[in-house]
């Protein structure tokens, strides 16, 4: 395969066409790609690792999420590269190569849905499917300068998708165009297009934006000005989210260690949230794949190997506490946002890291990233990454969150805001 021509995004190419092509279908004429974590009848689901592919048979059915977009009239052109066992947000694969970030070729594309994001970013397909457990749609969307949607937990079927950690696994999708993002969402969420909605309030999590190395005028201020222009400035509120979460989520105290309190670069309550999420993620990963890892002893790339074996050695200590935490956080954020509120945070804490960044530098960045990513991860809220052009010639983005089950509303908000955000970005320049 000519890797250069497809940015290294694809594992294999094939054609899956809709059963009944029709101009009336919402996705007619659109092409898409799927992450190599989705079952496609007749193909081995590789899960990002050659030893996994070698020890598993071809799928005998196709994942419902893939069938849903085929039914919408779209054509699948192949499977995309992913991080091994979905256990990274970087996008580097030691076996199959790292897909080239079309926005910044010397930077990582973001994982674990790296190939799916790159395929959209490089305009090889109109949209693509990925999965998001800890951040695997939101991060690559941010790094590749495209839209990426993580739905509310449990609203899109994960049947026929290799599990990573069920308490957090979601099927997400990427697009460059907000109209396409919305149409794909309608097929996956299985409800019709509704009229564009207006937010009741937009809450800017000011402490979260302080975690980011990108200046406010290129992120939150772009959003504020766009909201003022479209809906009126009275909708905008500012909040210290870390304090709110610490106050309203009592179970969090079990996870706020002295070490977390002492680290300057963190928001303690959100760092604790991230710590709790990763604990349950490790435990569920072990339940799903520990036996296979222990018996096959797969060859795993750097970083992934350490995380996978750490998960295999994990215990069920404090797992029940994380489940309580999930319930409390969802309730607290539902109270905050009510029916039509939107929470704005940075998707990631800065520019995409350079390829082959050393592990210690990356760890600080990852810790900050997971503080942000765990908000919707633990609450189960829907979240969308929206690109905001470039700063220092590197992609910049912002994320909007809405309460669990408000996916259609959030997709509509993106569609209504998108052009105004773009105008604001253009008025600033790079």
Tally the helices: what do you get?
14
Overall pLDDT: 95
Let me know the largest β-sheet. Answer: 11 strands, mixed
Coarse shape: globular
SSE sequence, one letter per element: EEHHEHEHEEHEHHEHHHHHEHEEH
Give unreliable regions as ranges.
none
**Oligomer classification:** single chain
Structural class: alpha/beta
Helix content: 25-40%
Distance between the termini: 36 Å
Number of strands: 11
Q: Strands of the largest sheet, in order across it? A: 1-3-2-4-6-5-10-11-9-7-8
What would you report as the Rg, rounded to the nearest angstrom?
20 Å
Beta-strand portion reads 15-25%
Topology:
Elements: E1 10-16, E2 31-35, H1 50-54, H2 64-71, E3 75-80, H3 114-121, E4 127-132, H4 138-143, E5 147-150, E6 170-175, H5 178-189, E7 201-205, H6 206-210, H7 220-230, E8 236-239, H8 241-248, H9 258-262, H10 268-296, H11 304-312, H12 319-337, E9 341-345, H13 359-379, E10 382-391, E11 394-402, H14 407-428
Parallel strand pairs: 2-3, 2-4, 7-8, 7-9
Antiparallel strand pairs: 1-3, 4-6, 5-6, 5-10, 9-11, 10-11
Helix pairs in contact: 5-14, 7-14, 10-11, 10-12, 10-13
């Amino acid at each position: 395969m000519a890797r250069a021509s497809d940015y290294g995004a694809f594992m294999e190419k094939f054609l899956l066409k809709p059963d009944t092509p029709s101009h009336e279908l919402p996705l007619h004429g659109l092409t898409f790609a799927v992450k190599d974590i989705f079952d496609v009848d007749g193909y081995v689901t590789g899960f990002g690792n050659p030893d996994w592919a070698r020890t598993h048979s071809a799928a005998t059915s196709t994942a419902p999420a893939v069938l849903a977009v085929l039914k919408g009239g779209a054509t699948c052109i192949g499977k995309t590269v992913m991080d091994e066992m979905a256990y990274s947000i970087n996008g580097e694969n030691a076996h199959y190569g790292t897909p080239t970030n079309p926005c910044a070729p010397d930077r990582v594309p973001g994982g674990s849905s790296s190939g799916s994001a790159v395929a959209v970013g490089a305009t090889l397909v109109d949209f693509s499917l990925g999965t998001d457990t800890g951040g695997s749609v939101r991060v690559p969307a941010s790094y590749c300068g495209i839209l990426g949607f993580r739905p509310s937990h449990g609203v899109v079927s994960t049947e026929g998708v290799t599990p990573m950690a069920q308490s957090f696994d979601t099927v997400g999708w990427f697009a460059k165009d907000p109209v396409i993002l919305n149409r794909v969402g309608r097929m996956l969420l299985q409800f019709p297009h509704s009229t564009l909605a207006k937010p009741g309030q937009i809450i800017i999590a000011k402490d979260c934006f302080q975690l980011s190395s990108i200046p406010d005028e290129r992120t939150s201020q772009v959003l504020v000005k766009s909201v003022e222009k479209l809906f009126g400035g009275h909708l905008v509120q500012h909040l210290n989210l870390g304090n709110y979460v610490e106050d309203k989520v009592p179970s969090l105290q079990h996870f706020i260690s002295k070490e977390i309190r002492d680290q300057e670069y963190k928001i303690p309550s959100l760092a604790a949230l991230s710590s709790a999420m990763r604990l349950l993620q490790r435990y569920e990963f072990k339940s799903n794949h520990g036996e296979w890892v222990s018996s096959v002893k797969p060859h795993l790339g750097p970083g992934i190997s350490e995380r996978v074996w750490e998960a295999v050695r994990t215990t069920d200590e404090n797992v029940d506490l994380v489940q309580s935490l999930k319930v409390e956080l969802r309730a607290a954020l539902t109270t905050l946002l009510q029916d039509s509120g939107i929470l704005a945070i940075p998707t990631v804490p800065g520019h995409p890291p350079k390829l082959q960044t050393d592990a210690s530098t990356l760890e600080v960045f990852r810790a900050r990233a997971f503080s942000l990513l765990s908000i919707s991860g633990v609450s189960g809220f829907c979240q969308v990454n929206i690109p905001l052009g470039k700063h220092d010639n590197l992609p910049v983005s912002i994320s909007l969150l809405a309460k669990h089950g408000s996916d259609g509303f959030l997709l509509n908000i993106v569609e209504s805001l998108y052009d105004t955000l773009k105008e604001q970005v253009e008025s600033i320049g790079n």
